[in-house]
Design a protein that fits this description.
Blueprint (H helix, E strand, L loop, with lengths): L1 E11 L7 E6 L21 E4 H9 L6 E5 L7 H13 L3 E6 L3 H8 L3 H8 L3 E4 L20 E4 H7 L8
Helix pairs in contact: 1-2, 2-4, 3-4
The structure holds iron/sulfur cluster.
Amino acid sequence: MKIRIAGTVSESIVDGPGLRYVVFVQGCPHNCEGCHNPETHSFSGGKIVDTDELFAECMEDPLQDGVTFSGGEPFCQAEALYALGKRFKESGLHLMCYSGWTYEQLLEKSEKEEFVGKLLSITDVLADGKFVLEKRSLALKFRGSTNQRLIDVQKSLKENRTILAEL
Ligand code: SF4
């Protein structure tokens, strides 16, 4: 399946726990002031690749503990990322997703957008919410501002409430 991406990084230690393969998707509607990746905002920028290529690139490196979908806004390309993420999960990799929407907003979106719900259903940890410049902190793990949360999606879905992840 085709996907529009800004790029990928292997063996990242800053985008989630352990060593991670990171897919930076292209296109973001949130326009957060102070965003670190403004070049990922345009929905016509970046490049179009096949998810098979991304899967193969990640699996070439046996050291990776997990995969992170970052951006850009991953949930704008939920169908392709669900197809890709499912393969990573079946290969035993931990899956983390970033989103400018909150977990609760994504749940609401999932009522109308099937693949938003499906992508959530295979996500282990969600880093949620827009980057807020006034709330920026360098002390936070895997997040940029204090309003953003790391959510244990599997537990949250199971218990029908928002549960933070322990990382
Ligand atoms: S959601 Fe992320 S990529 Fe999009 S504008 Fe905000 S900080 Fe930038």
